[in-house]
Amino acid sequence: MARCAYCKAEETKLYEDGSPICLICAGLAGDYRSGLEVVLVKVLSEATQSADSAIAELAAIMSDIPSGMPYPDGVQRIHNASAKLTVARHKLSEAHARLNAYLARGIVPEDLKRSGT
Question: In the predicted model, is pLDDT for residue 105 greater than 80?
């Protein structure tokens, strides 16, 4: 499968005019694909990938128990991976909230507003 030509976030089998396009971008009007929706969807996709990576890392550490590492080191590895997962999930939750606020109520996140407006 190819990555979406617009948001570069999702793998897709859907093509539009010869370019791969994900279902999210396909639902957006052509003029808006380079706009806020794509930025917010891309941030959401990156947050999802980060959370998936953190989950895989924690799962790998947990499946390696007992690892033979000294007690404090093994516990610290689990603690660090868990903290990384917590941060990734928080960012994922924020990304979902920002995209939902924009799509449902038209609220543009402060960091994406144009200066001078």
Answer: yes
